[in-house]
Amino acid sequence: MEWIQEQPDLAAYLAADEAIDHEHPVVRETADAFWTVTDGDAYAYAEAVFAYVRDAVPHSADSGDPRVSWRASDVLATRNGICYAKSHALAALLRAQGIPAALCYQLLADDDGSNPVVHGLVALRLPGTRSWARVDPRGNKPGVDARFSLDVEQLAFPVRPELGEIDYPRLYAAPHPAVLKALQDSADRPRLWENLPTGL
């Protein structure tokens, strides 16, 4: 699939904003610690922070945590978030060390095609490469086995076109407005479940 940059300038995918707040001390400290451990190797760093966000920040639906986080710094500080929030955290950690990161989305559904919902993940572009690779920091559980791979995608949820599921091709520099609104307008996770976007 051909990915479409929402912003033609790659610098947009290194910028900080209210959700991807990679200048926040919590994000900077985490990024610097992993950069040191990986000896400043961009590939090793990207793989390490992916695994950290995937494994050390539980998806709130799996953990039962009712809190709703949406800023990258809050996700890392509280170790809590759904797919969108965890994607914000991973994008912030990547951008903090100069690795372009985009937010991207899928439309997923139940096994009968009902109840469509937008799912968030990250695309990254390592220095010296000309292509984007998608990774999914959602968090693994029985039946979900997302891995870091730049060659062959291993996402949490490969789409099933026969059920109307979609890989949206656009790479966003900032969270999609529908996603950000759902997160910001929800006082807790049960309310968030009612506000999840059903399409972009």
Automatic annotation (TrEMBL):
Residues 38-137 form the Transglutaminase-like domain. InterPro entries: Papain-like_cys_pep_sf, Transglutaminase-like. It comes from the Bacteria. This is Transglutaminase. It comes from Streptomyces subrutilus.
